[in-house]
Design brief:
Elements: E1 50-51, H1 66-71, H2 74-107, E2 112-115, H3 129-150, E3 153-156, H4 170-180, E4 185-189, H5 190-196, H6 200-206, E5 211-216, H7 231-240, E6 247-249, H8 276-284, H9 292-307
Parallel strand pairs: 1-2, 2-3, 3-4, 4-5, 5-6
Helix pairs in contact: 2-3, 3-4, 6-7
The protein binds manganese (II) ion (MN).
The site of manganese (II) ion has 4 residues, from loops.
Length: 310
């Protein structure tokens, strides 16, 4: 690796909100009213990139509600049109959101933005395959054009099937990236690849030239080294293809509610500066607010594991 992909916030010292490449990931949010509290879980420690997950190109509304159309009738038709209008507006708002994030990345000195081009947690399709592909390509092209002007590279990330129905493997992300533009990149994530790929090392090799971000967590989504992933082989394969981008740390510690819980200090029990929406986002992703001690330990373990092979 050409640079140190791991940056750790000094203990007890919140970073400035505008520090480049820091805190752009989910769950690392500035606490309102000053002072930041470490709240997650969805750790993004990104030296040269900003990661934004969860782009809603497609929405929860349904476009072609076949049963309504077949039933006919004025009310149904109005209903369908209303939903279509809503969906078009929703998609336009999502595209604008990503374009604004791209501008933010540039202003922070970043060079890359990682995009999940569907609602995270949605595992049922919302249109025909052709329709959805076109929505994604058209929406991403608009973001891509803006990124090209601003000098920010896009990376499309597939997730496992339990988090999205849309893109689950690297070859699907590569196909989408190719349709979006020659400079559009992909991001692959060890946790997701371990579930979906036939051979994650070959998947990494296939991404050569398009790989713009790489997410790391172990197979159990704990810190690197706390599961059974072969980090020597993973880092070795990244070196083999000449990847010199970020290793974005993205452990998501599970919440153990049983007497078997090996980490009783994991959950933050004191007051946490989070809005209801922020807390809901974290809880909807199967985690909770983590204590400073536990979070720092996970970051430290990740760093220790990865540095051995760099
Ligand atoms: Mn990821």
């Amino acid at each position: 690796m050409a640079h140190n992909p791991l940056r750790r916030r000094p203990t007890g010292q919140p970073p400035p909100v505008d520090e480049p490449g820091y805190g752009a990931g989910d769950g690392e949010r500035p606490a309102p009213g000053g002072g930041r509290r470490r709240v997650s879980v969805w750790t993004a420690v990104v030296p040269v990139a900003a990661a934004v997950a969860g782009l809603l190109f497609a929405t929860s509304a349904q476009t072609a509600r076949g049963t309504d159309l077949r039933a006919g009738g004025r009310t149904d038709l109005v209903d369908v049109i209303r939903h279509q209008t809503f969906e078009v507006k929703q998609r336009a708002a999502s595209v604008q959101y990503v374009r604004d994030c791209i501008t933010m990345v540039k202003e922070l000195g970043g060079q890359e933005i990682t995009i999940v081009p569907s609602t995270v947690g949605k595992i049922k399709s919302q249109g025909t395959p052709d329709q959805e592909w076109k929505w994604a390509v058209d929406s991403l092209k608009s973001c891509y054009d803006h990124g090209q002007r601003e000098g920010v590279r896009l990376a499309i990330e597939p997730l496992n099937r339990f988090e999205t129905y849309f893109l689950n493997r690297h070859d699907q992300a590569l196909a989408l990236a190719k349709d979006v533009g020659p400079e559009c990149g992909v991001c692959v994530d060890v946790f997701h690849m371990n579930i979906e790929e036939k051979d994650m090392y070959q998947a990494i090799r296939n991404c050569k030239g398009r790989l713009a971000d790489f997410h790391v967590a172990d197979n159990n989504r704990m810190a690197c080294g706390m599961g059974h992933c072969d980090w020597g082989k993973i880092i070795g394969t990244l070196k083999e293809i000449g990847y010199d981008g970020a290793l974005t740390v993205e452990f998501v510690a599970p919440v153990d509610r049983t007497p078997a819980n090996p980490y009783p200090n994991a959950i933050e029990k004191g007051p946490v500066n989070l809005t209801a929406d922020e807390l809901k986002f974290i809880e909807d992703h199967g985690s909770s607010t983590l204590s400073d001690e536990f979070y720092t330990w996970l970051v430290s373990e990740t760093s220790k594991t990865l540095r051995k092979y760099m």
